[in-house]
Design goal:
This protein is mainly α and 462 residues long. The protein has 2 domains: 155 residues, no CATH class; 231 residues, MetI-like fold (Orthogonal Bundle). It is built from 15 helices and 2 strands. The chain has a two-stranded antiparallel sheet. The chain is flat and about 85 Å long. It starts with a helix and ends in a 5-residue tail after the last helix.
């Protein structure tokens, strides 16, 4: 039985369980007319039966789906000839992958022999037997759970309390997933970064002025030790982010102010969707625009006034990145302005303030927390952007504050270090995790600064 078919059967059983639970609760008190004799509404008894029918079965289903592939692969490997015990981990993984492809009817790499055919047949047999056992066990548990829930239904049974308690546990579990996912991401990056810092001193990484992570094959080659000073990467990231925010924040904020307070309904109805379309353009398209249009224009404009501009410059990347971020700043600022109570706006106008005075002295201070939050989100987006920088600013790790020169950013170097078939066993590849950890720390500091600022200047209303 296919997994989707099994899920549909479980959904049908859950619907039947809900109907039977609700019907039994009403039957115990003599029909719908006597429903007031029940402790809870009849629907809660149905939900109680549905939960006991569905949740245990879904738990077994998910656990089985996670464990099944590993168990089947272990059984297949155990049944292979003794020659498999002398294989390396990579060779054994390739052999298992070929057996799985052969079992699925796909093409395999290498020759096919009788051993692989037998292994593929056994693989299909194990999968078929596993699906039958899963269907029997899951449907059986669903039926038993629904029957137990039906037997527990009584007029005095507190079904609402039980249902709300189970829903509360589900909400806690759902919120814990986000926390555990964040913790897992942090720990996975942290452990690899620690491995990197065992090979490269932290002081060299944080304060070194030369970034050249290419490791030589022989010890006598030039640059065999590598250079992992990340200051040029941090400087390039800061330079491009600053240029982008100089473009995005004023334009985005003024756009939000105009659309929220000064534009007519017709203009807003046209301009707002256009901004949303601008926000939906893929970043690679912005990269093409930066490389083919903005970068040549910047170079030509600079040369016309006697400035030397590189073919790939931080200014071109920052300008296009700022254009990309304008809709984000505008949308979040517009929402923050609209969230200000209309009574404050009307009161200021009633006291004789002009619309401009009302905006500057009343609305903007009240909307400041939301605006700052939008700007911080835009900064994070700028720091994490990759494609525009690759196509418009280049890959050169130059330590410079000149926006007309080529620079690179942390995210671009992370992608460069991990391109291709890499193993995480050298300082070159592990440097990507150290850079990722630094991005996490910088983002965390930005959030803390923003939260402190918001708490200090936040306006509270009753």
């Amino acid at each position: 039985m296919q997994n989707m078919t099994l899920i549909l059967l479980l959904a049908a059983m859950a619907a039947v369980a809900f109907y039977m639970g609700r019907r039994r609760s009403l039957a115990l008190v003599g029909g719908p007319a006597q429903g007031s004799r029940l402790h809870s509404l009849p629907g809660y008894y149905g939900y109680f039966t549905l939960i006991w029918c569905l949740l245990p079965a879904l738990g077994i289903f998910l656990l089985w789906v996670m464990i099944e592939p590993k168990v089947i692969v272990a059984l297949i490997v155990e049944s292979l000839p003794d020659a498999s015990s002398t294989m390396s981990a990579g060779e054994l993984n390739l052999l298992v992958n070929n057996i799985q492809n052969l079992a699925a009817g796909d093409a395999i790499s290498g020759d096919m022999d009788a051993v692989m055919r037998d292994a593929a047949d056994r693989y299909n047999e194990y999968v078929a037997a596993s699906r039958k056992m899963l269907a029997t066990l899951t449907l059986g548990i669903a039926g038993v759970g629904g029957a137990i829930a039906l037997r527990r239904i009584r007029p005095e049974f507190r079904a609402r309390n039980r249902v709300e308690q189970i829903v509360l546990y589900l909400l806690i579990a759902a919120s814990s997933i986000a926390i555990l996912t964040t913790l897992g991401i942090v720990l996975s990056v942290l452990f690899e970064a620690i491995r990197f810092f065992r090979e490269v001193p932290l002081t060299e990484f944080l304060f070194g002025l030369n970034w050249s992570p290419q490791m030589a094959i022989r010890a006598d080659q030039v640059g065999s030790s590598g250079s992992f000073g990340a200051v040029p990467l941090f400087a390039g990231t800061l330079l491009i982010t600053t240029i982008a925010m100089v473009v995005a924040v004023p334009v985005g904020l003024m756009t939000a102010i105009y659309l929220a307070e000064y534009s007519s309904g017709r203009v807003r109805a046209i301009a707002k969707p256009l901004l949303e379309i601008l926000a939906g353009i893929p970043t690679v398209v912005y990269g093409f625009f930066a490389a083919l249009t903005v970068a040549p224009w910047v170079r030509t404009a600079g040369e016309s006034v006697g400035l030397e501009v590189a073919s790939e410059s931080a200014l071109a990347a920052g300008l296009v990145m700022g254009i990309m971020i304008i809709p984000l700043v505008s949308s979040l600022s517009d929402d923050a302005i609209h969230a200000v109570p209309s009574a404050m706006r009307d009161g200021a106008l009633g006291l004789g303030s002009t619309r401009s005075e009302t905006m500057v002295r009343v609305i903007l201070p009240a909307a400041l927390p939301g605006i700052v939050g939008g700007i911080l989100l835009a900064v994070s987006r700028a720091i994490g952007e990759t494609m525009i920088v690759v196509m418009a600013a280049g890959l050169a790790a130059n330590l410079t504050a000149n926006p007309f020169e080529a620079v690179t950013t942390v995210t671009v170097q992370i992608v460069t270090l991990l391109v291709g078939d890499q193993e995480f066993d050298s300082a070159k590849t592990l440097a990507a995790f150290a850079l990722g950890l630094m991005l996490f720390v910088v983002t965390l500091c930005l959030n803390v600064i923003g939260l402190t600022f918001v708490r200090k200047y936040r306006e509270q209303y009753e």
